[in-house]
Design brief:
This protein is of the alpha/beta class and about 260 residues long. The chain has one domain: P-loop containing nucleotide triphosphate hydrolases (Rossmann fold, 3-Layer(aba) Sandwich), CATH 3.40.50.300. It is built from twelve helices and seven strands. It has a seven-stranded mixed β-sheet, sandwiched between helices. Strand 6 (about 140-145), helix 7 (about 155-165) and strand 7 form a beta-alpha-beta unit. The model has no long low-confidence stretch (mean pLDDT about 95). Bound molecules: adenosine-5'-triphosphate (ATP) and magnesium ion. Adenosine-5'-triphosphate binds near residues 14, 18, 212 and 214. Adenosine-5'-triphosphate binds near residues 13, 15, 40 and 237.
Length: about 260
C-alpha cells in the first residue's frame, strides 16, 4: 500500500513546495514509484517538476469529476504528477456539496496502488483544499522557517488537524516539523528551535533531526527545470534534503510493506 505525505503550513513562503519537490525527486532517485499532487492554485509544484499546467486538465477537473484520473496524470520521465492551476482557487465556493472533503481522496483512489509514495503540496491556507489533503493523507510534514511570525497561527493548524482526525481521517499524524532556511549561527534560530520543540509537543510530534540550510540552489533549480540533486548535488541544502529523505524512509510507519518485514 502506498504511503501518502502532505506538506502543510498555512504560512506562505516557508518552503512547502521546495520541500515537496525535493522529497519527490529524492524518493524517485532511490527508485520508488512516486505520484506528486499539487493542491495549490499557484501551481508551483507542477512547474518545479516540469508539468504542463496551463492547457491540461488538472487536480481541479479531477476533484470536479469532470475527467477520469488517467487524463490528469502527467509524467516527467521520472515521476508522475497531477498538476494544479489557478482554476482551483474557486474550490471553496464551488465544492460546496455534501462529501466535499473526500474529493481528492476518492479521485486518487483508483491509482493509489500504482505508487510507493504519494506527495501532496498544499496552499498557504486552511481551507477546503487543505482539508481535502488531510483527508487523503495519513502523514503531514510541517515546514517552518526561523522567524517568529512563522510560528504564529499554530493553534489554527492544530484545530484543522484535530477536526480532520475526528471526522474525516482518524489515521492522520504529523510526522514532524521541518526547520527550513536554517542557520545555526543566527541568534534567533536558537529561540525558534526551542519554540519549534514546544509546538511539536502540542502537535504530538517531533522536530526532524535534519534541518534544511539556506542556499540559492533551492530557488535556482526550478528555474533551470532541474531538481536540486541534478542542479547542484553538493550544495548544503541538497545534502540536507538527501538526509531528510533518509530520515523519512527510516521512520516507523513510513517503510513500505515489503521493507517492513525485512
Ligand atoms: N532552504 C532554502 N534556501 C533558500 N531559499 C529557499 C529555501 N527554501 C525555500 N526557499 C525559497 O523561498 C521561497 C518560498 O519557498 P516555497 O515556494 O517552497 O515556499 P511555500 O511554503 O511553498 O510558499 P507558498 O506558501 O507561497 O506556497 C522560494 O523562493 C524558495 O526558492
Ligand atoms: Mg508553495
Amino acid at each position: 500500500m502506498s504511503k501518502t505525505i502532505a506538506i502543510t503550513n498555512q504560512k506562505g513562503g516557508v518552503g512547502k513546495t521546495s520541500t515537496a519537490s525535493a522529497i519527490v525527486s529524492g524518493l524517485a532517485e532511490k527508485g520508488y514509484r512516486i505520484l506528486a499532487i499539487d493542491l495549490d492554485p499557484q501551481g508551483n509544484l507542477g512547474f518545479c517538476l516540469g508539468a504542463e499546467i496551463d492547457n491540461s486538465p488538472t487536480v481541479y477537473e479531477l476533484m470536479k469529476g469532470a475527467v477520469p484520473i488517467g487524463q490528469v496524470i502527467q509524467s516527467n520521465g521520472t515521476v508522475d504528477i497531477i498538476p494544479s492551476n489557478i482554476l482551483l482557487s474557486g474550490a471553496e465556493l464551488e465544492f460546496n456539496h455534501l462529501g466535499r472533503e473526500y474529493l481528492l481522496k476518492n479521485g486518487i483512489a483508483p491509482v493509489r496502488g500504482n505508487y510507493d509514495y504519494i506527495i501532496i503540496d498544499t496552499p498557504p491556507a486552511l481551507n477546503i483544499l487543505t482539508v481535502n489533503a488531510y483527508t487523503a493523507t495519513d502523514n503531514l510534514i510541517i515546514p517552518m522557517i526561523p522567524e517568529i511570525l512563522s510560528l504564529l497561527g499554530i493553534s489554527q493548524l492544530r484545530e484543522t488537524i484535530d477536526l480532520v482526525k475526528n471526522i474525516y481521517n482518524p489515521k492522520i499524524e504529523v510526522l514532524g516539523i521541518l526547520l527550513n532556511k536554517y542557520d545555526k549561527r543566527r541568534l534567533l534560530t536558537k529561540d525558534v528551535e526551542e519554540m519549534a520543540e514546544i509546538i511539536a509537543k502540542e502537535l504530538y510530534t517531533k522536530v526532524f533531526d535534519t534541518k534544511i540550510r539556506s542556499s540559492v540552489t533551492v530557488a535556482e533549480a526550478p528555474a533551470h527545470g532541474e531538481s536540486v540533486y541534478q542542479y547542484s548535488p553538493r550544495a548544503n541544502s541538497t545534502r540536507d534534503y538527501r538526509m531528510l529523505v533518509e530520515e523519512l524512509i527510516s521512520q516507523k510507519g513510513m517503510k513500505l510493506d515489503g521493507e517492513e518485514k525485512q
